[in-house]
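Researcher: Please generate the 3D structure of the following complex. Treat every line as part of one assembly.
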Amino acid sequence: MKFGVVIFPGSNCDYDAYKVVSDVLKEKVEFLWHKETSLENYDCIILPGGFSYGDYLRTGAIARFSPIMKSVAKFANRGGLVWGICNGFQILLEAGLLPGSMLMNSHLRFVCKNIYIKVERNDLPYTQTCQVGQILKIPVAHKDGNYYISQKELLELERNNQVIFRYCDENGNITEASNPNGSLANIAGICNKEGNVIGLMPHPERASEKILGSDDGKNLFWSLVQHTNGASN
Amino acid sequence: MSSKRKAELSQAVVYVKLKEGVLDPQGLTIKKALEKLGYQNVKEVRSGKFFEIVFDSNGTQQSTKFLNEISDKLLANPVIEKFEIEVVK
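Model: Done. Output below.
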């Protein structure tokens, strides 16, 4: 399997994602500068975390117009796997590849800590090695992670089972106290209707080795490899 | 002053604010700060931003179309924000 990790000016989790694929999964991975337009021969494109364009205007608002984003949209429309993590999620929202938008955290502070998320579905390429209801310990690090969508669209999102991860406590209870940013319905990650494009605020690439405190994040990478290379891998 | 008539500069301001019903944590915090300072008669504070735009073509009609386009495309996120345009000159 071959991953591409996009580097926007201001990306800072690009190497983390790259290292998980190359060193932990031992799979192929290449960096893609944001001016790149060819995405041939990739199975999954990762839009990593960071502060693309300094978060100027709104998070992801400038990066969504980077040349590579037209190719990412085409790649997604052909069914390619597009994975936005944190700032990558914000870019996918601005680009309209995922529904909704991010507001500033309800407490107005940057939040950087380990949190728990509950897996809502495991029929996606990203979560097929997880159990439904499984609790993953993964860190968040953001100031604009307060997921917002209109009430009408939220109903549609829920009806289509597009919510993949919700913030919960360590026992899996979805509570207000376990919501680190004020997101509607404790939403931590969503997918498009087809399930090939996902975005989440937590950082699985920072929690893919035990030495880092948790390797729960590896489940997502590993799922993609199994999905693409087949169960024989 | 140059004897040659200069092309008139058009200026505009675009105000971007959160739509009604969208939570504004900054506005709420500012309201609370005002209350702490003793200003009790403020019912609501909504925060937003504005952009001063100076451009080199004249003709307000065209400018309005242009401003609508850039506001919708880049300056505001239509999912959560709305915008107002004020042509200055």
